[in-house]
Amino acid sequence: MSTKRKRSRKKQKVYTVHWPILMGFTALLVALVLLAVGVIRACALPEGDAFSAGETPEPIIAAPTRSPIPVDIDFTKVHKTHVKVFFPDEGEVRDMLLEEYLMGVVSGEMPASYSLEAVKAQAVAARTYTLYSIQHGGCKTNPNADICTSSSCCQTYNSEKREHDKWGDSYPYYHSVIAKAVMDTAGEVMLYNGKVIDAMYHGASGGWTEDSENVYSNAIPYLRSVESAHEIGSRQIGEVSFGREEFVSRVNGARPNAHMDADKLEEELKILSLYPSGRVEKLQLNQDVITGKTARKIFGLNSAMFTVEITDRQVIFHTKGFGHGVGMSQAGANGMGADGADYRTILLHYYTGVTIGVIGQY
Ligand SMILES: [Zn+2]
């Protein structure tokens, strides 16, 4: 009896001492689970697409889940052009049908939340860019490939897994937008004098696109500066700031001949000239003069369309647009699409004097 009582007392004691701890532990566990669910949900929120070579904006748009657009995704029903695609992460070259490859490219290069006609324009631009690459020596990283999935070398490519991760519940809808854009324009490419063009594009123009020779060495007749009046997309304006000393050490590190002095920035730092588009042509850094394009690299600016503000403590660059500014502005294409333009009108606006042909028929 005495043992039983003792055991029972002991049991009682165990419960009274440990219940609060147990409850506290349970509460902590529940909180952790809720936190984890929150994090997972936040990660799965649909957003805009990745951008390549720092030239395409990435809007965070939590679009509602919509029903997929009906589209027949049968690549064998269209032309049979193949493309050898190098995937650097996997270290392999895959032989793909062109339109199948373009599904991943369009999804990687433009937010699927943009207007459908803009996404179609992107599909034609990416297809044209791919054929141009094939005709001009292929991928520079891998001689066995026509093109690769590295944004810094060729064009971004989104795998289906990445699309699922990015779009979450909205995957069926956004995937159908991409498929519709690719299949509705299947085989279509831009031509100038009967030849496939170098279809450059960028995220946002800041109001005017740029003449090719102001960014690259050649004046290309179809890559002319045009107005891009209505742009819809994120990252249209940006700001990069440096402390005065920080700015000077960055300049003198990159441009040893500049010899800048943090106390004399008001005299030493000047925008000397602008292109008609509004992008900076020349920027004075005391004893050195650089182009707006070089300034983009040194200071990590979104665009060469910028103004400089000098305060007591800081140097602040205010930028408009995103990317090099040559060819089609994606935000401008989105704006044109929202205003009712179709993809052909968008392309003919941004690529001067081109025609649209179909693979195998030009
Ligand atoms: Zn490449």
Notable traits:
362 residues, alpha+beta, three-stranded mixed β-sheet, three-stranded antiparallel β-sheet, 10 helices, binds zinc ion
Characterization of the model:
This protein has helices at 2-44, 98-109, 116-135, 160-167, 171-184, 244-254, 265-268, 292-299, 330-338, 343-350; strands at residues 82-87, 92-97, 147-148, 188-192, 195-196, 201-202, 237-243, 269-274, 280-285, 288-291, 306-310, 314-320, 328-329, 355-358. The chain is α+β, with helices and mostly antiparallel strands and 362 residues long. Among the domains are: 75-201 and 354-358, no CATH class; 237-320, no CATH class. The strands form 5 sheets. The chain has a 3-stranded mixed sheet with strand order 2-1-3. A 3-stranded antiparallel sheet has the order 5-4-14. Strand 1 and strand 2 (92-97) form a beta hairpin. It starts with a helix and ends with a strand. Mean pLDDT is 86; it is low at 1-17 and 32-54. It binds zinc ion. Zinc ion is lined by residues 139-141, 147-148, 150, 153-154.
